[in-house]
Write a sequence for this structure.
């Protein structure tokens, strides 16, 4: 709604019409979506309203259209009334009713108090590329710029792609960046995020300078960086480019799969479980294993620290790449490695997306790798230098666009998910 008011060129109700049509008349369920709905059968069946919508056709999702009548009504009200169609009136009342019947604590006052906020993006540089990404209360932009600084400083490009030296150097950088995330990042409206210090070149140089390509530092020996704070005293992704060269990189999240699993009765949408992105107590991990402290502690009206990293890259002042992904704590490292794959390893967009990924977030001190990334030999060598390796079936579901020199667009849609690259 806010983006539409500022930049939109089509009428608001026309923008919502395709979504209303899909909700009202249904769409064919993909194999990926059917698998997910079957995997979450038990959890989604625990809530009557959720079950009515999300499990109606269990287990034969592939042969039926997925219809969401209540959601269509909700979207029609939003099409008519904009922001107030959700935060006031009938839909708001349905949310409050849901809260009352489920011992929730969100009130009409909370809904009235919530508004979207325009914030400055994080801007940094990687070689001759300008990186534009999301600032606090997401950790994504600051962490990504720190990671890319580390990759440039330690010249990770000189190592063979996904070799021992590459994986170890990259994960050494990643651990230090996630240690900073845990301590220094939270909602900037409530916590004085030392953004300038965290992105300061000298600070970053010292932070990464001791890293050795074949030595793994135990996470217990890595602490957040320190500096004098002398300034005045943080999932679904779309990457879009239009014929005029405008670019949109947008990540939106309800956190866990199907959020809290609770559908607002009569309104047809799921409530999120975003509170998990806060740090409940120092050092106590959330569902992504992330730890945090004071900066991201729970407070009324405060926004939780995200890892979303919607990113736009310019090269020589021209649009060069648009990228992002879901994946919780792994969002940042998937965006980071995809950028390196294109800029340093000369991959095309789809190849960079397809390429196997790995991830280290400081704590827990484990190296998460996609299955079939490492040869047995490399697995052993990494284990020998102290990495605890955990295999995961997939990391990230990237949606990216690379702008070729002739202006044509190169789409990269992640086969790990249900992603597609389309030109209209
Ligand atoms: O904002 C965040 O960092 C999380 N709520 C993102 C969760 C997510 O990407 C789940 N998807 N796989």
């Amino acid at each position: 709604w806010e983006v539409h008011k500022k930049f939109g060129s089509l009428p608001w109700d026309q923008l919502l019409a395709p979504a209303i049509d899909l909700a009202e008349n249904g769409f064919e369920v993909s194999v990926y979506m059917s698998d997910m709905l079957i995997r979450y059968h038990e959890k989604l069946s625990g809530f009557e309203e959720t079950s009515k919508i999300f499990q109606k056709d269990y287990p034969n999702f592939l042969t039926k259209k997925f219809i969401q009548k209540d959601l269509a009504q909700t979207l029609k009200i939003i099409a008519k009334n904009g922001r107030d169609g959700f935060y006031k009136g009938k839909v708001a009342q349905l949310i409050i009713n849901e809260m009352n019947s489920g011992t929730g604590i969100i009130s009409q006052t909370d809904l009235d108090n919530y508004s979207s906020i325009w914030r400055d993006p994080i801007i940094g540089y990687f070689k001759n590329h300008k990186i534009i990404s999301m600032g606090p209360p997401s950790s994504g932009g600051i962490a990504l710029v720190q990671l890319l600084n580390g990759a440039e400083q330690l010249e990770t490009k000189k190592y063979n792609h996904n070799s021992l030296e590459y994986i170890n150097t990259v994960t050494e950088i990643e651990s230090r960046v996630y240690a900073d995330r845990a301590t220094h990042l939270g909602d900037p409206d409530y916590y004085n995020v030392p953004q300038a210090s965290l992105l300061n070149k000298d600070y970053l140089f010292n932070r990464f300078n001791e890293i050795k390509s074949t030595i793994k530092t135990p996470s217990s020996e890595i602490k957040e960086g320190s500096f004098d704070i002398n300034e005045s005293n943080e999932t679904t992704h779309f990457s879009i480019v239009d014929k005029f060269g405008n670019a949109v990189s947008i990540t939106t999240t309800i956190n866990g799969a199907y959020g809290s699993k609770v559908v607002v009765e009569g309104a047809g949408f799921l409530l999120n479980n975003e509170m998990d992105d806060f740090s409940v107590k120092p050092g106590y991990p959330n569902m992504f294993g992330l730890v945090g402290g004071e900066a991201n502690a729970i407070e009324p009206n405060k926004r939780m620290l995200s890892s979303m990293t919607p990113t736009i890259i310019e090269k020589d002042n021209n649009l060069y790449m648009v990228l992002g992904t879901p994946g919780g704590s792994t969002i940042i490292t998937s965006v980071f490695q995809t950028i390196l794959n294109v800029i340093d390893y000369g991959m095309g967009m789809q190849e960079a997306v397809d390429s196997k990924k790995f991830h280290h977030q400081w704590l827990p001190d484990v190296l998460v790798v996609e299955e079939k990334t490492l040869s047995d030999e490399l697995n052993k060598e990494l284990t020998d230098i102290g990495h605890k390796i955990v295999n995961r079936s997939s990391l990230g579901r990237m949606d990216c666009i690379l702008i070729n020199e002739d202006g044509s667009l190169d789409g990269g849609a992640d086969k790990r998910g249900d992603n597609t690259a389309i030109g209209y």
Summary: Residues 229-234 have pLDDT under 50 and may be disordered. The longest strand covers residues 236-241. The pocket of 6-diazenyl-5-OXO-L-norleucine is lined by residues 235, 253, 255, 277, 306-308, 326-328, 331 (CB under 6 Å). The two ends are 23 Å apart (CA to CA).
